[in-house]
Design brief:
By secondary structure, the chain is mostly beta strands. It has 1 helix and 16 strands. Strands 1-2-3-4-5-6-7-8-9-10-11-12-13-14-15-16 form a 16-stranded antiparallel barrel.
């Protein structure tokens, strides 16, 4: 352990680092670029990762993700309003003989209006749709297949908003399994801004539906609702050691109007208070979390009130604090290395947990032909 810490602090001493969060490593989707009209590109998107958790207690067992995914694409921009990407997504964990995920990639982006665009096929999941980690686990970019469906994105000076529907399980008449899809709404409205500070109000809604009218499954319909709002503030400090300070407060909720199955609770809530600082040595943050019967099917599991191993093992009340650190080092223009560390303390069980990871992110374009 002492040797590992020495190597880590040596890395900090000899490199110029830019602080980010784990969510900010998910920026692979490339928007339509009007300078590339009638241009055919070959694009490589990839993430290599080693992510280890040492979680204590009954909510989540410790686990490790180690592997890489590769997403080669052909990208053609028809006009200043239309772009098409075609390729594949391949995920493989180290030492396994086969790929865990092999999926085709198809994404069409259409600029409908000046401030609004629509995406068909594989969605723009950059920065996890802007969702808080209690609603959307950032590690899904290392475990899940790319989401598919339809997505609308709106961007103006004071408002950013996106709405999407993604299908995790599509059904045809008579299929013996249920339809699974997700409806999402995520946005932020800027309510105050000056030269040193900004204040935004987030609004987030996720609906997870399991059901369908044309399948032959005997299972009943279940719909889960998660929502969040709060206040997000950023203060610019300067260009010396400390650059920015963030103070974010989020309130999140859960509802299951179809009954407590399958998780045991039909409603719950929680709140988080996060204080973060972006420095020359990376980004640090302190996070306090308090919750009662909170569930989020796609959220970060360590924040839930039910055990991922056995739903009979639950903690109605959760109270924990976390210290997070992350740095990002640019190797080349489109290639970055990142390190992340996290320490958590559960006030109710008095148990200490930690996690850390290393990541290599590639997003690079190669010009094939300009027509």
């Amino acid at each position: 352990m002492q040797k590992i810490l020495s190597i880590f602090f040596l890395i900090l001493a000899v490199t110029q680092l830019n602080g980010q969060t784990l969510t900010d490593l998910n920026y692979h989707y490339k928007d339509l670029d009007t300078s590339e009209v009638k241009t055919l590109n070959f694009r490589i998107e990839s993430m290599s990762f080693f992510h280890n958790t040492e979680y204590m207690g009954e909510i989540v067992d410790g686990y490790t993700w180690t592997g890489a995914w590769l997403r080669p694409k052909l990208s053609y921009t028809f006009s200043d309003k239309l772009k098409l990407d075609v390729g594949g997504h391949f995920l493989r964990y180290h030492s396994r003989d086969d790929f865990t995920i092999v999926r085709p990639w198809f994404s069409a982006e259409y600029q409908m209006f000046d401030k609004m665009k629509v995406v068909f096929g594989n969605l723009n999941e950059n920065r996890n749709h802007g969702l808080v980690k209690q609603l959307w686990e950032p590690e899904r970019m290392m475990t899940d297949a790319p989401r598919e469906g339809v997505q609308f994105l709106y961007q103006s000076k004071f408002v950013e908003l996106q709405n999407w529907m993604s299908w995790e399980q599509f059904i045809l008449p008579g299929d013996p399994y249920q339809e699974h899809f997700t409806f999402g709404l995520s946005g932020r409205a800027q309510i105050y801004s000056n030269s040193i500070s900004t204040v935004k109000v987030p609004l987030q809604l996720l609906v997870y539906h399991q059901g369908g009218e044309i399948d032959s499954s005997p299972l009943g319909v279940v719909t889960h609702y998660n929502y969040a709002t709060g206040l997000e503030t950023k203060f610019k400090v300067g260009d010396r050691f400390l650059k920015d300070i963030d103070l974010n407060m989020h309130w999140v909720g859960y509802q299951c109007p179809d009954g407590p199955a399958p998780y045991g609770y039909d409603n719950g809530y929680g709140y988080s208070i996060t204080l973060g600082g972006d420095t020359r040595l990376g980004k640090f943050s302190f996070d306090y979390w308090n919750a009662y019967q909170f569930i989020a099917p796609y959220g970060k599991r360590i924040y839930m009130s039910i055990s991922h191993r056995d739903i009979a093992l639950s903690q109605q009340n959760r109270s924990q604090a976390a210290f997070n650190y992350m740095m990002k080092k640019r190797i080349l223009k489109d290639i970055e290395f990142a390190f992340q560390g996290e320490a958590l303390y559960d006030f109710l069980t008095t148990k200490f947990s930690f996690a850390f990871g290393y990541y290599l992110v590639i997003n690079q374009d190669f010009l094939l032909k300009r027509f």
